[in-house]
Amino acid sequence: MLVTGLCSFHSLASHKFENISNVSHFQIEVVTELLEPYQIENPDGTLSGFSTEVVHALFKKAQSRANIRVLPWARAYEIARSTPNIMIYSIAHTEVRDPLFHWVGSLKKEKLYFWGLKSKFPDNIDDIEKLKAEKIAASRFSNVAQYLQANNFKNIYELIKEDQNMLMLYRGRVDLIVATELTLKTRAQKLGLDFNKMKKIKEVTELNNDLSIAFSKETKPNVVSHFRQAFDAIKRDGVIEQIKNKWNIQ
């Protein structure tokens, strides 16, 4: 488990937030996973990435402190589902998850695709039913795993770490994975894999979503309101767009 140092931020904001005296300067527990290029572990053990920088900017504007824990996604998701006053990122804002969390703001719109190796899928496939018998890897409790289960895919391999999905594909242990192009390109570079061997098979329109920041359902309303206002402020001030440009996020 990677734990970032406790980040204490002092106010640089002129904007006053509702209930700020009850929320500012409090430590907020934050859970996440490693997911390139959104959450990246640096060689020195610190955490960076596009979404992490947005979260740091958010806490700076909110005048609060973040204690960020990096966990396998299933564990992070379980904590955020069952524990009050927990922030989680980067989490796909899906229809199924919408009532389960308080949503703070969108980081990026995502398009997800089925991917396989060109050697396995030389021909184009338009009918999703033809993919349901293939072996497919997905992270446990991910929106991908939830989709596959709900749509009667037969051979789902639920894994703990996102990197394992791509490694299993390249080693021939599964036939398909589901991800965005940006994530797979970044991960292939990290793992030393040839991305050109991969084939984008079919868009999974049902999984297209806003990658987001959210709070657990039992989080205090004034905390949620405070961070929503802080998120709106950094979006309005162009901070998020600047971080996107730095990380070449479209």
Task: Offer a quick outline of the entry.
Helices cover 32% and strands 28% of the residues.
Tally of alpha and pi helices: 8
Kindly estimate the percentage of residues that lie in beta strands according to DSSP.
25-35%
Domains counted in the coordinates: how many? Answer: 2
- Class of the largest domain, according to the CATH hierarchy? Alpha Beta
Mean pLDDT equals 89
Write down the secondary-structure element order: EEHEEEHEHEEEEHEHEHEEHH
Q: What level of helicity do the residues show? A: 25-40%
CATH architecture of the largest domain: 3-Layer(aba) Sandwich
Distance from first to last alpha carbon = 30 Å
Which stretches are low in confidence, meaning pLDDT under 50 for 5 or more residues running? 5-21
Q: For this entry, what is the oligomeric state of its chains?
A: single chain
CATH-assigned fold name of the largest domain: D-Maltodextrin-Binding Protein, domain 2
Q: Which structural class do you get from the secondary structure elements?
A: alpha/beta
What gyration radius follows from the Cα positions, in whole Å?
Answer: 19 Å
For this structure, what is the CATH homologous superfamily of the largest domain? Periplasmic binding protein-like II
Shape: globular
Number of strands: 14
What does the largest sheet look like? 7 strands, mixed
